[in-house]
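User: Just a sanity check before I run the rest of the batch. Below are the structure tokens for the first item. I only need the designed sequence back.
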């Protein structure tokens, strides 16, 4: 049976670092709308569903999705792992071949080509999980995680750790994990570049970078980033520390090498 892939994206209005972030505009377009349209431009046939907390403070976001005809699911406010599990069951994504691509609402500059290659790898090599986060090489804001839906449903029934339930996927890559996992790396190290939307200043910096390079509607190819001018606008000395926090707290050691490395073309390294 061919694998069915669904993209599930976390989004919310109640971000502590940037309240109302999901509907803040980037180049005049609400962030979640730009995100959805950027994915659909590259992957028109892939199902995309936003996951938002079942909280009255998110009603404005739900109304926006309904107005725009964007699929969304409301689940547990505090238990993000349970929110994913509920969505997977509701959407009947629980066959042995179903794959989930997890994105966060910060990652507007989704790379559809990397996504396709990562799907090829996880299917071909029978992995449980693959991401481009284990040893960063992509810019911050290009994070992609892909895993098997049944693994998440099983762990949802067994995990009790609040940290793991909040961050959804650390059980795949934490110390002594029994899962088969892969690390997908870019052919150029772009870790110094920050194209995520965690703070208000991220919006203004990305807008300035796009304007200076006359890039229209977020059509920013990863292969162009290393050669585009004005990249200093996107550099942040705190970037690597911010990206490492989840790994440090989940006790994942990048020195363990408990994963298979793949280059951008999807071949073993």
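Assistant: Here's the designed sequence for the first item:
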């Amino acid at each position: 049976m061919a694998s069915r892939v669904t993209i599930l994206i976390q989004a919310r209005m109640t971000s502590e670092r940037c309240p109302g972030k999901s509907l803040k505009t980037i180049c005049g377009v609400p962030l979640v709308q730009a995100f959805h349209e950027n994915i659909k431009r590259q992957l028109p046939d892939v199902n995309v569903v936003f996951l938002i907390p079942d909280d009255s403070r998110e009603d404005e976001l739900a109304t926006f999705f309904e107005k725009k005809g964007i699929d969304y699911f409301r689940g547990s406010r505090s238990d993000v792992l349970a929110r994913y599990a509920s969505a997977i069951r509701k959407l009947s994504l629980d066959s042995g071949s179903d794959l989930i691509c997890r994105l966060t609402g910060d990652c507007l500059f989704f790379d559809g080509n990397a996504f396709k290659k990562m799907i090829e790898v996880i299917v071909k090599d029978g992995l449980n999980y693959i991401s481009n986060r284990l040893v960063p090489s992509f810019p911050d804001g290009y994070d992609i995680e892909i895993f098997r839906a049944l693994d998440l449903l099983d762990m949802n029934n067994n995990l009790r750790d609040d940290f793991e339930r909040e961050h959804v996927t650390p059980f795949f890559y934490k110390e002594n994990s029994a899962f088969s996992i892969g690390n997908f790396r870019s052919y150029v190290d772009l870790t110094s570049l920050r194209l995520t939307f965690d703070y208000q200043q991220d919006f203004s910096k990305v807008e300035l970078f796009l304007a200076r390079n006359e890039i229209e509607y977020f059509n920013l190819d990863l292969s162009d980033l290393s050669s585009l001018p004005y990249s200093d606008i996107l550099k942040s000395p705190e970037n690597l520390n911010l990206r490492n926090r989840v790994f440090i707290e989940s006790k994942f050691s990048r020195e363990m090498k408990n994963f298979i490395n793949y280059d951008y073309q999807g071949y073993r390294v």
